[in-house]
Design brief:
The chain has 468 residues and is an alpha+beta fold. It is 50% helix and 7% strand. It has a 4-stranded mixed beta sheet with strand order 1-2-6-3. It has a two-stranded antiparallel ribbon with strand order 4-5. The protein has a two-stranded antiparallel ribbon with strand order 7-8. The structure holds protoporphyrin IX containing FE. The site of protoporphyrin IX containing FE has 26 residues, from helix 12 and helix 16.
Length: 468
């Protein structure tokens, strides 16, 4: 029996989890930290989970002991889904090789440079046109936003984009939604405890395994199409680079470049890159409707800085500090991570006086950091000033850990930041977002899941005078 940091007894943990619908509600973790301190243990479905609560504990683990906390727990369910391939659900040599390749290749394809930025600007323009077609009538913004965001990834990975009503694309989006929604549900936890459960009841798992299959099959189909038209010396996209790498390292016994890792990498980039960025943008527009004063201030800043037609680039964020601060505040205030992506210790470690054994699942509670009254002036209030200094200049705060930190920090962090800025500024330059007539309130509670988007809502995108 290994020794873990203190925490509520196993039965109490289980009762709390059942009480909140088989999901660990972020508030419960904050409450538990008040009793047991910033590093405590709760008992999850089949194993102890050590929670790092508050900035000091998360930083100590993820940044100071970056290598020791660099493992990813691969539970029975995720093992069945991803087979320890790709980047998100792999470990050791495979993870190191695939992650490094992913980072280097995304950079080559224009991450932080002009390449990806042009693609994002084009997608932002398409999104503005889609909203404009509704002519101010109520629309659900989720599908158009997901379409535009995932098209940025599609262009990088597959070399082409999809139109918003493409059947194949809609199937992929549905698959992502089904996969993300399944995380943390009762049947998910049941699988973690009894991995053989599918032999007895298969129906709850058909949708989620089917969803994973839709994305992987699509990845394989795209790969085959690339093989038929090889890139030779001038790779066009992620798949081209990967196929060239496979060829280069075919005689290297340590190589992990193969078809299975490629398909899983594609799925990782596609799922991780779509769901997160689009949920943040959906929250952003919702918060603009509920905070018209902030919306107006942003519109004035954008108008003064860029007029009605100048192409907006990420570099321009310096001319729009209030807007950039608001984007960061959207991320803090509507923290889309249930807690933080779980990690695993790869050796025994002592942090802040607590001993944590090798192989322990770690949950860095990013949520607790986002609402910590010691860090933020008005933690429960949407307040862009959290990211501004007294002269109104943007202040980057290391306490915003939405992309994780340390050895496994988000691979798409820079790309996501560019996307959020360019999509958000283009939309707010073109429209004023309002609730449909007669609607007085909108649900501001998140949908609990692996990521936490808002519930579906409708908005009216009213064209601004210079854009009508
Ligand atoms: C607002 C948008 C995004 C947010 C909030 C976000 C957040 C995160 C977080 C919290 C992690 C886990 C890091 C950790 O374990 O500490 C992660 C990992 C990852 N993200 Fe993102 N992400 C975003 C966008 C993207 C995009 C656009 C891509 C793809 C281009 C991407 C690809 C990945 C990958 C591949 C990993 C796995 C890294 C690893 O395990 O080594 N993400 N992301």
């Amino acid at each position: 029996w290994k020794k873990y940091p203190p925490g509520p007894p196993m039965l109490l943990s289980a009762v709390k989890i059942v009480q909140c619908g088989f999901r660990i509600h972020p508030d419960i973790l904050v409450e538990t930290a008040k009793q047991y301190g910033s590093i405590f243990t709760i008992w999850g479905a089949s194993q102890p989970l050590v929670i790092l609560s508050g900035f000091e504990a998360v930083k100590e683990g993820l940044i100071k002991h970056s290598e020791i906390f660099s493992g990813r727990p691969v539970t029975p369910f995720y093992k069945a889904i991803a087979k320890e391939k790709g980047i998100v659900f792999s470990n050791g040599h495979t993870w190191k090789q695939q992650r490094k390749f992913g980072l280097v290749t995304l950079r080559k394809l224009g991450l932080g440079k002009k390449g990806v930025e042009n693609q994002i600007q084009e997608e932002a323009q398409q999104l503005v046109e889609t909203f404009a077609r509704a002519k101010g009538q109520p629309i659900d913004p989720s599908i158009p936003i997901i379409n535009s965001v995932s098209n940025v990834i599609c262009a990088l990975v597959f070399g082409h984009r999809y139109s918003v009503d493409d059947e194949e694309f809609l199937k992929l989006i549905k698959a992502i939604e089904n996969g993300v929604k399944f995380g943390g549900t009762f049947f998910h936890l049941l699988y973690e405890v009894i991995p053989g459960i599918m032999k007895y009841i298969s129906w709850p798992y058909k949708t989620v395994f089917g969803a994973a299959d839709v994305v992987l099959s699509h990845a394989r189909k795209e790969t085959e199409n690339h093989r038929k038209q090889p890139a030779q010396h001038d790779p066009r996209d992620f798949i081209d680079y990967y196929l060239l790498q496979m060829e280069k390292s075919k005689n290297d016994p340590t190589s992990t470049y193969d078809d299975e890792n490629l398909a899983q990498c594609i799925s990782d980039l596609f799922v991780a890159g779509t769901d997160t960025t689009s949920a943040t943008l959906q929250w952003g527009l919702l918060l603009m409707m509920t905070h018209p004063d902030i919306q107006e201030k942003i519109q004035k800043e954008i108008e003064d800085a860029f007029g009605s037609s100048q192409l907006i680039s990420y570099q321009d964020r310096k001319k729009a500090p209030y807007t950039f601060a608001t984007i960061h505040e959207i991320q803090r205030f509507k923290c889309i991570l249930l807690a933080g992506n779980p990690r695993e210790t790869v050796q025994d470690v002592n942090i802040l006086g607590s001993f944590i054994p090798k192989g322990t699942t770690i949950v860095p509670d990013v949520h607790s950091v986002c609402y910590d009254p010691k860090l933020w002036e008005t933690p429960q209030k949407f307040n862009p000033n959290h990211f501004l200094d007294k002269d109104g200049q943007f202040v980057d705060r290391e306490e915003l850990l939405l992309f994780g930190a340390g050895a496994r920090v988000c691979v798409g962090k820079e790309m996501a930041k560019i996307e959020l800025f360019i999509f958000f500024t283009n939309l707010l330059r073109a429209f004023t977002f309002k609730l449909p007539e007669g609607v007085k309130e909108v649900n501001t509670e998140p949908v609990l899941g692996l990521t936490m988007p808002p519930h579906h809502y409708k908005l009216c995108a009213i064209a601004r005078p210079s854009n009508s």
